[in-house]
Amino acid sequence: MTIRRLLAASSLALVLSAGLAHAQPAPVALERVEAAVAAETPRVVAWRRDIHAHPELGFAETRTAALVAEHLRALGMEVRTGVGKTGVVGVLRGGRPGRTVALRADMDALPVLEATGLPFASTATGTYQGNTVPVAHACGHDAHIAMLMGAAEVLAGMRADIAGTVVFIFQPAEEGAPPGEPKGGAALMIEEGALENPRPDAIFGLHVVPGRPGTVFYRPQGFMAASDRIDIVLHGRQTHGAWPWKGVDVIAVAAQIIQTVNTLTARTVDPTTTPTVFTIATVDAGVRYNIIPDEATLSGTLRTFDIAQRDDLVRRAGVAIDNVAETFGATAEFSVRQNAALVYNNEALSAWLAPVLTEAAGAGAVNAASPPTTVAEDFSYLSQVVPGVFYHLGASKDGADPNTSPPNHSPGFDVNESILPLGVKTHVLSALRFLERP
Length: 438
Known about the structure:
By secondary structure, this protein is an alpha+beta fold.
């Protein structure tokens, strides 16, 4: 555990255990929250569909950011734009003094060709790595934005009864830093003061994923994997495809390296203690069927839950890749860049949140001990600065098997709109109940 995390945990413990000097108002009744959420739901659905039809890639979310900022200003909030290029921060100050809590949503879409068949499906394009590509909200961020906009509306309507401050963070570029950018959205927003003035005592976030609609699941400590981007550049010697012995065959080297990486994780890491995925996902080499090229480029992803184990695996992978290349007479350049840290849910805050989420979703709908998942989220950087909890909402279609539902990042991924009110409600109640603590 880092010093920063220890300090954040200590600060949270003081916040959770110490009473405030001023008197706390009576808790806002659940019935009042539910009525406000129900009234806001048609607008949340409309926002989601509008944003879904107009997706934008990371750090290009100009239309989306303008929509969000206009909405927050109309609610009378203090609004900062351009935080982390296209990020938006809204500050809602309650009618009484108190703590500060933050709620976060991500705004970027993906270079994916949508195949949902929705009447509001995306036909947008964008620029990625110099190419014109289709763009779609294939990860559900359109729903995240709409739900947090709805929560902002509901909480603004309760401003007089709120003891404290709610900070709304609409973040760009969650899917990682675009090519040529050194940092992704969360890291850049932190650097530019998104978590300052005021500084939150806690932060909450959510993500829609395949799962039974209406369910909420998460876990304390390590919930979502740390994500590293892996790049390997192989240098050989070009030759005729009929005379491979007259050159250095980087295609053969690439094939051997892929098998080595797969074997390294499958045979040296215990998956029951530290889930680990090391995937080579792209291979780029050659221009003609009968020419063995002099260079090949591979890229992939490493997902881990243990820092020491991750560091050791990276070290051993580097040695193994160099050895394979040397065996063939080639050379290899191996580099690693972190895209997201481990999503670490604060233990005390996780335990406190379970009954709040149950209040929102109902008995039996919350699993606070869900297995870890190897997908990643840069919410991890936000929760390194202040204590936080990140949870998932099941968003599969009614009656669908979540195990066979189209996953996030696939062309067929879609969000069951019936869960949108629940996301608004979990946001509202997590903020209210945190600020209402005596």
